[in-house]
Amino acid sequence: MTTPRPALDPELRELLADMPLMSELSPEVLAQLRAFPPTPVDTLLADRRVDRREVTVPAEDGTPIPLSVFSPADQDRTAAAPCVYWMHGGGMVMGDRFSQIDIPLEWLDELGAVVVSVDYRLAPEVTGTTLVEDCYQGLLWVAEHAAELGIDPSRIVVAGASAGGGLAAGVTLLARDLGAPALAAQVLICPMLDHRNTTTSSRQYSGEPGVWTREMNAFGWRAVLGDLTDDEVPAHVSPALADDLSGLPTTYLDTGSAEVFRDEDTDYATRIWAAGGQAELHVWAGGFHGFDALYPQADISATARRTRTDWLARVLPSGPDA
Question: Is residue 322 part of a domain?
């Protein structure tokens, strides 16, 4: 018997018809996916007036973690800019710091934000807390070098999509628990938040090919968790486990109605509200996982991306004295 599922947005359904889909991941398939050419970031920068800087930051074990810093070329150095600290998607097992970078680059264009993207290490080569700690070390560096980067330290936003959204949530929890740095907001785009993979939406998107299925999700989480048992998984790695969601910065969270992460994402927003926090939640009807990154030309994608940008414009003050 076929599991009932919310219908796809008609335009997305038509676009998706030409995309090769999978139901599961394996080490062999992962190796093939990793062999694809990296994101052509130079193409995205060609028509933008952007200054680009590459730096490395030491991880806790001394491993160099690459960061790319993108700043508006005409940035007024007398007025510190907001910063978006970006974590890419890829199921924790693939991708690089240029994956989905077109999303935060829109915020550079429209809000004058400095964008910093981190190349955290991937599972299964590293496991446990390493991925989120790599991201956190990069964030600390950004906060410590805010003046050098032309960044207003009171307007740092962490953001990410899919696995990067889950890492952004984990980094935000770490920043709260360790007391630094202060964050203005977090933007969680279809975030990967819960290793348990047991929600209704998870079960709905199982057993058939898709953009990201329950089986693919289980593969990604197994790669990250390694030998950890369920009782040993830290909330910074699987943020849905966090007992306390109080004290978080204002949060934007969106997901699709037709994807694995729908229910864990809506639950996370609900728990932020229950803890007295502020969150804006959008569940895009007919959206599958990562729809706006894969098909930004679709009407629903343009609306989702514009809504995020408008939210950021509202929550970020215009400057240190605002």
Answer: no
